[in-house]
């Protein structure tokens, strides 16, 4: 089994199933924090899918896109944590 077979037949199906499960958690999350964590995890899984696609197509420019998405996801999580901290102080 080559690396490409491993990526096609094992990694991509696992990532696809995890995206489906995370999306269900995103829809069913009872609290706002659950939904934000699920959204962050969706972005992280998307970064993994982009990385696998970059390896399969042998185009490293997609890794730049994955790094930008990782930065956006990190900044979104930090902004949400800041929002929760301010909200708790106001209550």
TrEMBL record:
<comment type="similarity">
    <text>Belongs to the CPA3 antiporters (TC 2.A.63) subunit F family.</text>
</comment>
<keyword id="KW-0472">Membrane</keyword>
<feature type="transmembrane region" description="Helical">
    <location>
        <begin position="6"/>
        <end position="24"/>
    </location>
</feature>
<feature type="transmembrane region" description="Helical">
    <location>
        <begin position="36"/>
        <end position="56"/>
    </location>
</feature>
<keyword id="KW-1133">Transmembrane helix</keyword>
<keyword id="KW-1003">Cell membrane</keyword>
<dbReference type="GO" id="GO:0015385">
    <property type="term" value="F:sodium:proton antiporter activity"/>
</dbReference>
<feature type="transmembrane region" description="Helical">
    <location>
        <begin position="62"/>
        <end position="84"/>
    </location>
</feature>
<keyword id="KW-0050">Antiport</keyword>
<dbReference type="InterPro" id="IPR007208">
    <property type="entry name" value="MrpF/PhaF-like"/>
</dbReference>
<protein>
    <submittedName>
        <fullName>Multisubunit Na+/H+ antiporter, MnhF subunit</fullName>
    </submittedName>
</protein>
<keyword id="KW-0812">Transmembrane</keyword>
<dbReference type="GO" id="GO:0005886">
    <property type="term" value="C:plasma membrane"/>
</dbReference>
<dbReference type="Pfam" id="PF04066">
    <property type="entry name" value="MrpF_PhaF"/>
</dbReference>
<keyword id="KW-0406">Ion transport</keyword>
<keyword id="KW-0813">Transport</keyword>
